[in-house]
C-alpha cells in the first residue's frame, strides 16, 4: 500500500491531472485483479480446510488446480485491457484532456495482469500453509525492485528523459516477473511442491469445483463491491477534476488504513479454516469474536490519528487549498466508515472460511447498489453534497453489511455450513 501511495506521489510530481489519470486507470486494473480472487480466495480457504483435516495430498492437488485457472484468467484480462483501454476509460467518464496520459499507462500496466494472476494463487497457497512471513519478505523484495526502477524509468537518467507514467508501469511489470520466480522457488523450498509446466496450463475440473464453491460467492462479493465503487467513481469524475483528484488522494490514505483490518481478517480466515477442517467449531467461534474486538480497537485508534494528521498527510500530494480542505473533512468522516468496514472484513472472512460464502454476497449486492450507489447519487449528485455525500453513503453501506454479518455469526447461521464443509473434506480426502 505504501508503494501505491508513493506511486501517486511520484505521478503528482508530473501534475495533479496525471495523478487523477493514474488513480482512475489503477481502479480499472484493480477491478480486473478481483477476478483472480475467484480462484485464489477459494484455493486459500479449501487448502486450509484440507490441512486442518491433515490431508496434505488433497491440499496439494487444490494448489496445483489454482495455478492454471488463474494463469488463463490473467492472460485473458491482459488481452481485454490491450484491446479495450480507451472504451474502459470512456466508460469511467475520464476527462478527455487526461486520455493522452491514462490510455498508454493502462495498456502498459495491463501486461502485469498475466503475472499477477499466477502470483495470486502462489501467494494464497503459501499463506494457507501459514508461511506469511516468507510471503511478506517476498513482497518487500518485489516492491523494493519496483521502487528502485520507478525513479529512473519515470524521470530519466544520464541525459535520457524517461518514460513518465509509462516508466512506472514498466517497473511494475519487471517487479511482477521477479515475484513470479520467487514464488515458484518458495513453493519448492517451503512446501516441497515442484510445479511443472503442465500445472500452469492444465485445468483440473474436480478440484477446481471445490475451489469455486467458495471462490465464486466470495469473489463475487468483491466484484459487486468493485462494480459499485466504479459507478460511484464515475459520479465523482462527473463532479470535475478537483473532486476526482481529491478522491484519489484521500483514498490512498484510506486504503492504507484498511491494511490493519485486512490483516486481522486474513489471519482470521486462515485460522478458522484450519479449525473447521479439524472439526473445532467452538475454537473457530472464539477466533472470530476475538479478532473482531482487536480489529475495532486498532481501527478506531488508527483512523483517529490519521484524521488529526489529515492536512499534513494530504499535503504530501498537493498544495491545492480546495483539495486539502475537502480531503481533511473526508478523513474525519472516515471515522464513520471504517469501524463498519472492519466488522465486514473480519466476520466475512470467518464466514467464508466456515463454508458460509453465499450469505455475504446476497446481503452485499443489495446493500452496495441500493445503499452505496443509491445514496451516493442522492446525496452527492442530486442534493449537491459532493464528496461528503459519497462518504456518508460509503459509511451507511459498510455498517448495514457489517451488522448483518455480525448477526449471522452471532446467531450461528454459519454452523450448518461448517458441518457440511467438514463432511466434504473428509469425503474427498483420504480413501476409506
UniProtKB/TrEMBL annotation:
<feature type="transmembrane region" description="Helical">
    <location>
        <begin position="292"/>
        <end position="310"/>
    </location>
</feature>
<dbReference type="InterPro" id="IPR047135">
    <property type="entry name" value="YsiQ"/>
</dbReference>
<keyword id="KW-0813">Transport</keyword>
<keyword id="KW-1133">Transmembrane helix</keyword>
<keyword id="KW-1003">Cell membrane</keyword>
<dbReference type="GO" id="GO:0042910">
    <property type="term" value="F:xenobiotic transmembrane transporter activity"/>
</dbReference>
<protein>
    <submittedName>
        <fullName>Multidrug transporter MatE</fullName>
    </submittedName>
</protein>
<feature type="transmembrane region" description="Helical">
    <location>
        <begin position="138"/>
        <end position="157"/>
    </location>
</feature>
<feature type="transmembrane region" description="Helical">
    <location>
        <begin position="330"/>
        <end position="347"/>
    </location>
</feature>
<feature type="transmembrane region" description="Helical">
    <location>
        <begin position="65"/>
        <end position="85"/>
    </location>
</feature>
<feature type="transmembrane region" description="Helical">
    <location>
        <begin position="105"/>
        <end position="126"/>
    </location>
</feature>
<keyword id="KW-0812">Transmembrane</keyword>
<dbReference type="InterPro" id="IPR048279">
    <property type="entry name" value="MdtK-like"/>
</dbReference>
<feature type="transmembrane region" description="Helical">
    <location>
        <begin position="359"/>
        <end position="379"/>
    </location>
</feature>
<dbReference type="GO" id="GO:0015297">
    <property type="term" value="F:antiporter activity"/>
</dbReference>
<dbReference type="Pfam" id="PF01554">
    <property type="entry name" value="MatE"/>
</dbReference>
<dbReference type="GO" id="GO:0005886">
    <property type="term" value="C:plasma membrane"/>
</dbReference>
<dbReference type="InterPro" id="IPR002528">
    <property type="entry name" value="MATE_fam"/>
</dbReference>
<feature type="transmembrane region" description="Helical">
    <location>
        <begin position="249"/>
        <end position="272"/>
    </location>
</feature>
<feature type="transmembrane region" description="Helical">
    <location>
        <begin position="30"/>
        <end position="53"/>
    </location>
</feature>
<keyword id="KW-0472">Membrane</keyword>
Amino acid at each position: 500500500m505504501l508503494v501505491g501511495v508513493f506511486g501517486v506521489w511520484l505521478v503528482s510530481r508530473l501534475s495533479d491531472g496525471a495523478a487523477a489519470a493514474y488513480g482512475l486507470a489503477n481502479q480499472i486494473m484493480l477491478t480486473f485483479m478481483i477476478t483472480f480472487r475467484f480462484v485464489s480466495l477459494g484455493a486459500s480457504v479449501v487448502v486450509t480446510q484440507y490441512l486442518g483435516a491433515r490431508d496434505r495430498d488433497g491440499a496439494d492437488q487444490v494448489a496445483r488446480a489454482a495455478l492454471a485457472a488463474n494463469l488463463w484468467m490473467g492472460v485473458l484480462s491482459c488481452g481485454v485491457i490491450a484491446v479495450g483501454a480507451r472504451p474502459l476509460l470512456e466508460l469511467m467518464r475520464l476527462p478527455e484532456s487526461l486520455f493522452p496520459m491514462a490510455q498508454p499507462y493502462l495498456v502498459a500496466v495491463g501486461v502485469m495482469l498475466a503475472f499477477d494472476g499466477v502470483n495470486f494463487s502462489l501467494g494464497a497457497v503459501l499463506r494457507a500453509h501459514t508461511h506469511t512471513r516468507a510471503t511478506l519478505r517476498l513482497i518487500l523484495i518485489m516492491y523494493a525492485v519496483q521502487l528502485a526502477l520507478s525513479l529512473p524509468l519515470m524521470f530519466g537518467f544520464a541525459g535520457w528523459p524517461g518514460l513518465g507514467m509509462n516508466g512506472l508501469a514498466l517497473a511494475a511489470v519487471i517487479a511482477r516477473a521477479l515475484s513470479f520466480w520467487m514464488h515458484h522457488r518458495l513453493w519448492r523450498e517451503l512446501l516441497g511442491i515442484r510445479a511443472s509446466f503442465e500445472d500452469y496450463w492444465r485445468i483440473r475440473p474436480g478440484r477446481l469445483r471445490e475451489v469455486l464453491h467458495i471462490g465464486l460467492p466470495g469473489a463475487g462479493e468483491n466484484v459487486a463491491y468493485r462494480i459499485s465503487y466504479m459507478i460511484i467513481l464515475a459520479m465523482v469524475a462527473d463532479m470535475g477534476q478537483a473532486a476526482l483528484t481529491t478522491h484519489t488522494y484521500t483514498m490512498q490514505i484510506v486504503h492504507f488504513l484498511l491494511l490493519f483490518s485486512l490483516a486481522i481478517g486474513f489471519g482470521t480466515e486462515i485460522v478458522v479454516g484450519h479449525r473447521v477442517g479439524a472439526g473445532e467449531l467452538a475454537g473457530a467461534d472464539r477466533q472470530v469474536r476475538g479478532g473482531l474486538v482487536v480489529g475495532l480497537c486498532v481501527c478506531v485508534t488508527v483512523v483517529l490519528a490519521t484524521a488529526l494528521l489529515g492536512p499534513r498527510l494530504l499535503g504530501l500530494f498537493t498544495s491545492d487549498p480546495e483539495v486539502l480542505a475537502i480531503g481533511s473533512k473526508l478523513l474525519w468522516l472516515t471515522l464513520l466508515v471504517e469501524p463498519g468496514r472492519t466488522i465486514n472484513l473480519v466476520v466475512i472472512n470467518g464466514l467464508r472460511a466456515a463454508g458460509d460464502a453465499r450469505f455475504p454476497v446476497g446481503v452485499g449486492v443489495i446493500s452496495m447498489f441500493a445503499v452505496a450507489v443509491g445514496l451516493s447519487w442522492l446525496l452527492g449528485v442530486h442534493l449537491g453534497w459532493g464528496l461528503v455525500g459519497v462518504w456518508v453513503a460509503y459509511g451507511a453501506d459498510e455498517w448495514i453489511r457489517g451488522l448483518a454479518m455480525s448477526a449471522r455469526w452471532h446467531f450461528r447461521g454459519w454452523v450448518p455450513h461448517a458441518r457440511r464443509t467438514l463432511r466434504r473434506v473428509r469425503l474427498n480426502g483420504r480413501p476409506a
